[in-house]
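Task card 7
Instruction: Convert sequence to structure tokens.
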Amino acid sequence: MERFDVAVVGGGPAGSAAAHAAAESGASAVVLEKGVPRADRPDRLGPDSTDAAGILDYWVDIMGIHPDEMPDDVVVSTLDRAEFIGPNESLVLRKTGFDTSYDHFGFCMHRARFDDFLRDRAESAGAEYRVKASVRDVVTDIEGSPRHTVRLANGEDVAADFVVLADGPQRQITNKVLDRFLSFDVTDRLATTKVNHIAYQEHRRLPEDVAREVEGAIKFWWGYMPGHTAYPWIFPNDDNVARIGLTMPIGMDLSAVEAREKYKLLRDSDERIPQGREYVRRLLEQEYGDEYDVETDFPVVEDRGKSKGTETYAISSTRPIDSPTAAGIAVVGGAMGATSAFHEGGDHTAVRTGAIAGELAGAGDLSAYNDRWKEAIGDEVRRNVAFADIVRDYGPDDWDRSFAAARKMMEASSSDKLFNLDVGTVRAGLSVGRLATRFKKAKYKFRGDRYVQLFADEYTV
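Output:
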């Protein structure tokens, strides 16, 4: 049986970052990745981890990797604004309000190339990266040496002193492992079918005029489809191609939707929540159907994305969890719920938590991990959990009111910064004051580390 200092389950951004950090610390590290084929990665198997792949300026510093460190083909477009579009009100943001090392509002990237960059980076540091290595279980003996036996689908075992669980929001291994250290069923809090979101996107080539309009902007439509933090988007990429997609909770029941006539992407004839591709078609028809034939003028680019220009994937929409570090286990990235509960962005927190776990495991002591990840991303998590809490029951009218209030705040303060809800609230009026007060109350609710939904002292290690 092969033995390593650190075994990493999953080869996405969090897993590759963990392996890189462990190897740089002088430890032997191996990444065990099932590997899936992708249309945009034709010559290499890799992780099944996909998203809209946009990074804001301050996320660069959270992530700890500047775009200048990446190969030229990873970044496919730079951003100068975000457009938030409600049914009748809208908001344009050109600054996030943070001092950062990155000069643009953000950037969009080619996700498969980003994953490959992180893999190559880990291997260059000395880590092994194995594909077609599907993990079936991790057996832990706290008193053993090594403590962990990672069991693979092919019947082989890998031994390790430390295990980093980076298997993404589906948590197929993470939930199984954590359940053994809890006095309750882990799915009481981390059942993926109840707490995760599902996302769907298409790579479509835009008409020249639309491409110029979208250039530099990430666009989000709020209040157009029902569901907690459910929204469609457009992310511009290169060569007049954009990612057009949406995210929504898993298993929604249309009969439970109130005032469904107010949602512009629903139809009276709908008997169930529309599928992702239908939502995308309706969005394009609504925005551009008066001038263009959507299917002809916005063709799907079939050599991009996971399969024939499309991608479907799960997103963790839970709050983050602590890890049972006393057992020599760290959970990172989407598996720990580090993905934002508000906007579903998570590459930056995945890389950062993976790097922290790998560094500590490589040095032979994970005990500081739960404190370290909170120090690194706690403010980001708390902010987004607070936003998600505020909008949990929002309908179309609520989004309009919030966008109108936020725009008043920005006009009153001569500011176009994203999270600065304190500036200008007095001059902007009562509606803005209410919005700022709700945000402050939500942040206070999650003060300290109260945004954590599974604490270290709940593990029986």
